[in-house]
């Protein structure tokens, strides 16, 4: 009896596939039938020209297998087509649920009744219809809210490494594990983003999508590329990995005429802590900044171990300031950056010449460096600071210096916020 690869999808045209040409109503009906039909009485079309099996792939023109290929004999295998592209059921009832990498519930809850069936590749957003993100999301983390503010609709990754606490977040999730099939790992983020698009643009909700770990996704992409015998690029990754990652990251944003939004925070672990690795390197070109989780801060028991110097939020300037956060936000952030960077340089110089050779100004920067890491960056795992509390802590640290040394803050702002009684602001 022939084995069957039941979940193939078609990537190109094939004469055996039925094509609807009767308008959107008929297309919607066929779409529903493709998911709800009885395949015993209405069998799929069968394609019997399998030429081989290689790793996770069944060698068949324009077809991928979304389940394991173990035990498949190329000489006794046939593939059945659904007559449709891969779609996922979506519903507002999916909120609070846990799904596997194929979109099936694994939390022992009821089956989700679909309100619609959407293409997992999504629909491209017309650049003309995109709205520039200008509304800050308060995370409660000073290193982010104060110095790398995230705007609603932004895509900003977290660059982390193995063993660092980047995953300590509770959420509703699509769970795909490393031992699952590589093809499933490739579709998991697309299932999550398709559901997010439904919740954002049809249910008008503000959705935060956290994708972890995008390094595992890229490894799966490399595995499939190698099985297809494609010409490898940098470190064996396919040459189209930039384009492939862009199809995921660019699904974040806000759309004109819709009240919802999708904010995307992909998490990736840098192999060997190497930020020049192709995965973080290409991700940085596509996204709008990055948040850098630092191993040295983690080793010094500083939580969250966010290094603000290599971190960046390119949309921060549009989401802060008077009327959004506070008018001194940008000035405080710039001055904190400058003082922390100088403090790092002084710390390195101290290791060479010793503390006795440092000037009085250098000692102030060293004091600031230590207090900045312990009082500003570090906070309790359940501590939720408002942006105003974060800015007030920043001013407390800047008062270590005399006014004359705070050269990145205008005099008018210093006059209002530098005095000790300015905390009322």
Automatic annotation (TrEMBL):
Belongs to the ATPase alpha/beta chains family. Signal peptide: none annotated. Pfam families: ATP-synt_ab, ATP-synt_VA_C. Keywords: Hydrogen ion transport, Ion transport, Transport. This is V-type proton ATPase subunit B, brain isoform. CDD domains: ATP-synt_V_A-type_beta_C (cd18112), V_A-ATPase_B (cd01135). It comes from Trichechus manatus latirostris. The gene is ATP6V1B2. PROSITE patterns: ATPASE_ALPHA_BETA. GO terms for biological process: vacuolar acidification. Residues 182-313 form the ATPase F1/V1/A1 complex alpha/beta subunit nucleotide-binding domain. Residues 319-418 form the ATP synthase A/B type C-terminal domain.
